[in-house]
Task: inverse folding
């Protein structure tokens, strides 16, 4: 249940509604907005008949939120959430940050070169995995803590924000120490204990769609994080499995407007994992910005042909530079702008 107050409701009116929610055994959650306050609650209230709330002073309407995800829904919070992962790097506003970098952190030289190239081209955050969820246990698994230290070094040199993946609770604590945003990968989208854990941390979370997950599943996974008290969740479309092997995944761009209708959380697009092929990345990144994505996540490697993971889908640095230029033009055409760092 969500109570929408009238614009002129007094604080006594708001308190009264909160008291009623408390009396029914739930925790009220007032959400002050620009024009009016809405009041949600925590807990399963499906059995309560809330219709009488509509008759209380200052109440405009009572919405029964029937979607399985509540705090992630637009009914719960009508304004889009802006998640700021580092000063000036905001997802969900008019700015469109570009997050780029290699699939994996491989060495100091590689990640510093990548960071300089991302910065020079106009990216605002550096991505790169220190903990890699590889399909094969024999494939390169990432540098672990050393990789996080190298990312921190790259941030110190370039000022780029850092986005990197955590695969388990212990790793998430480590990532939270070093990075600006914790990535939860497609393979862990339904690792509910990990989701709950990152919900308790005070770091933004970039939650990628699972490869066989519906949008409803994605929003329910986000709900786990929100329910633990972490409001800073960025969703990410990265393609889903399908019958067609022409591309690595089927990049579901429709997810962008679908999620934006259902949820207040920002959604970014990852055309690198979404397509798996370098020459498809640029067109689909352009399309994602045109579709209204709140950010772009793209793999770029100083020497993709020598990459330890995902080389075939990693852009060459000059291709990335060209892409950012094009994204600026496309963003401007829809009244947005690619985030520019000082
Ligand atoms: C990645 O971002 O490198 C990654 C492993 O992505 P995903 O979880 O979407 O496969
Ligand atoms: Mn990758």
Result:
């Amino acid at each position: 249940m969500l109570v929408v107050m009238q614009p002129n409701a007094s604080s006594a009116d708001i308190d009264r509604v909160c008291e009623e929610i408390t009396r029914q055994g739930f925790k009220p959650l007032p959400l002050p907005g620009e024009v009016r306050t809405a009041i949600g609650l925590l807990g399963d209230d499906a059995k309560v008949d809330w219709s009488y709330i509509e008759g209380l002073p200052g109440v405009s309407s009572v919405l029964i939120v029937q979607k399985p995800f509540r705090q992630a829904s637009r009914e719960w919070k009508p304004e889009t959430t802006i998640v700021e992962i580092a000063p000036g790097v905001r997802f969900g506003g008019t700015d469109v940050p570009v997050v780029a970098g290699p699939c994996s952190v491989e060495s100091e030289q590689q990640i510093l070169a990548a960071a300089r190239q991302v910065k020079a081209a106009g990216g605002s955050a550096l991505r790169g995995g220190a903990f890699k969820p590889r399909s094969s246990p024999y494939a390169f698994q990432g540098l672990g803590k050393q990789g996080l230290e190298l990312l921190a070094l790259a941030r110190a040199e370039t000022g780029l924000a850092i986005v990197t993946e955590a695969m388990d609770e212990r790793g998430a604590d480590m990532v939270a120490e070093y990075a600006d945003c914790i990535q939860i990968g497609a393979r862990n989208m339904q690792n509910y204990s990990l989701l709950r854990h990152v919900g308790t941390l005070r770091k933004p979370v970039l939650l990628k769609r699972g490869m066989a997950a519906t949008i409803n599943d994605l929003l329910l996974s986000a709900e786990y994080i929100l329910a633990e008290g972490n409001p800073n969740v960025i969703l990410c479309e990265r393609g889903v499995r399908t019958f067609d092997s022409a591309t690595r995944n089927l990049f579901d761009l429709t997810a962008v407007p679908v999620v934006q209708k259902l949820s207040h959380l920002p959604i970014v697009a990852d055309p690198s994992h979404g397509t798996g092929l370098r020459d498809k990345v640029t067109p689909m990144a352009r399309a994602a910005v045109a579709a209204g994505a709140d950010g772009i996540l793209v793999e770029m490697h100083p020497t993709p042909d020598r990459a330890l993971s995902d080389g075939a889908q990693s852009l060459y640095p000059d291709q990335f530079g060209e892409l950012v230029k094009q994204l600026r033009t496309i963003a401007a055409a829809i009244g947005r702008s690619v985030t520019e760092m000082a």
